[in-house]
Amino acid sequence: MDCGGSLGIGIAVRRIADSVTVVSVAGEIDSSNGDSLFETLSSALPETTLMIADFGEVTFCGSSGLRALLLVSEACADRGADFVLLPSPVVRRAVEACRLGGVLRLAEAGDTVTTLVTGRS
């Protein structure tokens, strides 16, 4: 799914393995597209046991983006699914500045989608 155009972000959802969903996001996340991001992330939840939010190409993440991440992380927990955020440096700084590192599970620096799925570095 591409939510580009006037929304300023691109979103691709793909299912890998049996129940692993990777949502790759690129661009700037702000109040103009935070709700669309949340809806896209939420729509991927029903058959997911692990959701990886790949925000490696996100160049700005405002409070609307952080809100979407928090809500989806909580929805995953409610369903017994795991949620991992693979952040860009910009997103990592936003999460850390808002002290959300204890709430959102952040991938380690150097992790990739592959290492998160396979457990190998």
Task: Tell me what you see in this structure.
The chain is an alpha/beta fold. The chain has a single domain (5-107), classed as Transcription Regulator spoIIAA. It contains four helices and four strands; from the N terminus they run E-E-H-E-H-E-H-H. The chain has a four-stranded mixed beta sheet with strand order 1-2-3-4. Helix 1 (34-43) runs parallel beside helix 2. The longest helix has 17 residues, at 63-79. It is globular. InterPro entries: STAS_dom (IPR002645), STAS_dom_sf (IPR036513). It comes from Amycolatopsis vancoresmycina DSM 44592. One of its GO terms (molecular function) is anti-sigma factor antagonist activity.
Task: Briefly characterize the structure.
InterPro entries: STAS_dom, STAS_dom_sf. By secondary structure, this protein is α/β, with parallel strands linked by helices.
